[in-house]
Amino acid sequence: MKTTDAIPVTLLSGFLGAGKTSYLNRRLLPNLPPDSLILVNDFGSINIDAELIEYRDERIMQLSNGCICCTLGGSLAERLAELLRQPVLPASLLIEASGIANPTRIADLVRLSPRLQLQELVCLVDASQAERHSRDPRVREVWQQQIDAATHLVINRLTTDLALPPALAALLSGHPASIEKEAGAAISPAPATQVPRFTRTGAWQSFSLNLDQPIDGDRLAALFAEYADVLVRAKGIVQRQGREGTEVVQLTGGRLSWSSALRRPAQGQLVCIGTGGPRLNRLAERLRELARVEAGAQTALA
Questions:
Q1: Distance of CA 233 to the CA centre of its chain
Q2: CATH 3.40.50.300 occupies which residues in the chain?
Q3: Which of 40, 58, 104, 267 could link 149 by a cystine bridge, Cβ 3.0 to 4.6 Å?
Q4: Locate the CobW C-terminal domain: which residues (predicted)?
Q5: Angle in degrees, CA 270, 123, 33, rounded to 5
């Protein structure tokens, strides 16, 4: 039985690159009660999403180097237990799940605690990637799980007429969730020469890099394009050669984008997520080689 003072919980889900952190900053943070707590999971040893949330650092708990969809025990349960042991409890809890998390399992864990009350399960869906996700055997299952579990769906990056893509319209037919539609800049599909051939082999895997020196943006983009068959998502906070300040770099749907970073970490950070195997391992090696080359060049110039 839930207690009358149970902490209200909002769970935010959505596939890699759907815009969860942007939506959190723009729509959820302004409505959070004072002294709320945010728990951010990222599939990698470096938590880029936590760096991008515009909230007080001491009110953000990070859960990195894993996927909280995989088990009802482990790190998430430990974090929630730690939270409930605090002498002063948060007014509310907002959980941003990793992009490959099954939110049903996270919701079940929240429901097990009498001191937590799941209020809403929000799922971000990138309409511009719906046809791609529905055909990709690596993505389709978890993408559908996230949509099926939602109590509130935010369909973003729609065209101005807000019409749903056929694959998404079929999936949402009869869905009981409330639906919010947002027009916006779509992430166009990658050119035909860069569309990867999808396979059913390989589990999700991530790797992370710390970048001490500015990176060559063109060489980074070329590596991402070369390994598009295994690389699904990349994100980071880096400095490009020849540019002032740090930038947020994101690879979503085969497209690379750059934007100004509000925060400047002590060193550049990059996380890549894809299907595990020799190809992804080779990409990690080549990115590390690129980082070493850049560091060596900077040392030679000093």
A1: 9
A2: 7-183
A3: 104
A4: 204-291
A5: 90
Q: Contact 208/44 with Cβ under 8 angstroms?
A: yes
Closest CA to 124 of 291, 257, 12: 12
pLDDT tens, position by position, 101-152: 899 989 999 999 999 999 999 999 999 999 999 998 888 999 999 999 999 9
Strands 268-275 and 204-211: antiparallel
Q: How far apart are CA 44 and CA 54, in angstroms?
A: 20
H/E/C letters for each residue in 56-105?
CHHHEEEECCCCCCCCCCCHHHHHHHHHHCCCCCCCCEEEECCCCCCHHH
- List of residues 6+ apart from 56 with CB closer than 8 A: none
- The partner residues of 62 in beta bridges, in order of sequence, read 40
pTM here? 0.80
CATH architecture of 7-183: 3-Layer(aba) Sandwich (3.40)
The most confident of the ranges 31-35, 54-58, 95-99, 114-118 is: 114-118
List where CATH 3.30.1220.10 sits in the chain.
192-301
CB 237 within 8 A of CB 2: no
